[in-house]
Amino acid sequence: MNGTRRRVAQQIWSAIHIHSSSKTGSSHSHQLLDFPCLVHQQRGVKVNGSDVKLGNIIEKNGRLHEVIKAQHTQHGRGGATIQVELRDLESGLKSTERLRTSESIERVRVEDKSFQFLYEHGDTVFVMDPKNFEQVELSKEIFGKRAAYLTDGMQVTVSFHEGRALSASVPTRVTCTVVQAEPSFKGQSASAQYKKLILENGRTVMGPTYLEVGDKIVVNTLDESYMARASKS
């Protein structure tokens, strides 16, 4: 029995050795966690498609994706589906998927940490951990469109998985200044209740026709929609 165990152990060690050597070119580097047949990593929890929400990190087709849009659609007798827009966290590529409400999806467990935004340089965002004042560099890409709403001192939330920063978000409600607005005309149809507004950060939102250049508005950063006119301080 002991001889059998030794042979099995030798076979496992040999497999790890070959796998590690092929990746690093060195016989002294053994990466057990990279060997999927031997180690099963519990990434997250199984949820129904109906429970997938904006901002979730899910695993699909063996890859991690951030849900950047989620819309429930009813198909009569055909049942409901969830149409989601995903961003591949490795490649940055976006795709659209249609999930059944009863479909089993693996939602990845993440650890959310709060940081204070300091500044950005090129494609890098610099934040500070308010607990120990340590500065951390993040890829601007993990903020997505939300990077446009970063302002000095803003509190941001970074989602980590196995020590890696997967995504980052800004507050849902952000106050912005209108720098350009489409003109309003008397006699506009009742359907023309919104017009295009360009914000100080270059982003475009649709807002009420009475808004003008210089007005401050509150924007929902999740979908970049107008929420309200900011109160004057």
TrEMBL record:
Residues 112-166 form the Translation elongation factor P/YeiP central domain. SMART domains: EFP, Elong-fact-P_C. One of its GO terms (cellular component) is cytosol. CDD domains: S1_EF-P_repeat_1. Residues 174-229 form the Elongation factor P C-terminal domain. It is found in: Cytoplasm. Pfam families: EFP (PF01132), EFP_N (PF08207), Elong-fact-P_C (PF09285). GO terms for molecular function: translation elongation factor activity. It comes from the Eukaryota. Keywords: Cytoplasm, Elongation factor, Protein biosynthesis. Pathway: Protein biosynthesis; polypeptide chain elongation. The keyword Cytoplasm applies. GO terms for biological process: peptide biosynthetic process. Belongs to the elongation factor P family. This is Elongation factor P C-terminal domain-containing protein. It comes from Picea sitchensis (Sitka spruce).
